[in-house]
Design brief:
Layout: H1 10-40, H2 49-59, H3 63-92, H4 98-116
Helix pairs in contact: 1-2, 1-3, 1-4, 3-4
Length: about 130
């Protein structure tokens, strides 16, 4: 009757680890996007408030939103890693990688928009806060 269930307390630890992983992955994706923009020959963008604050905003969202955002970031990283490696290899050989970089940039921005759409609506007073 007084035994602690095996998963007691682990959900918060798991949530913290997941939030930290998502935050680090999001930062890495933002840096990778700057590299792709440079290779595409376009001016790197200045990230908006939602992009900069995404890890903090999604951390406070419902569990299903956090899970989908984590999966979306993982999927986006899975696309960007080999894409950048290929672009750098093409560039190192002296070939023009701008068209491929521009295609990867477009894929990245579309996927990032989909991940950002998972943020809960904030309204005019900012994100929802809980006491």
């Amino acid at each position: 009757m007084n035994a602690i269930p095996p998963n007691f307390g682990s959900s918060q630890a798991r949530s913290t680890v997941s939030a930290s992983t998502t935050s680090m992955r999001w930062a890495a994706l933002s840096e990778a996007a700057q590299v792709v923009a440079m290779l595409a020959g376009i001016e790197p963008e200045r990230p908006g408030k939602d992009i900069r604050n995404f890890p903090a905003l999604i951390r406070d969202a419902e569990p299903w939103r956090r899970e989908m955002a984590d999966r979306g970031c993982a999927d986006l990283a899975a696309v960007m890693e080999p894409g950048i490696a290929t672009l750098l290899a093409v560039n190192a050989r002296g070939a023009d990688c701008k068209p491929a970089a521009l295609a990867l940039w477009r894929e990245f921005t579309q996927a990032r928009c989909a991940v950002l759409a998972l943020l809960p609506p904030a309204g005019e007073m900012g994100p929802r806060r809980y006491a």
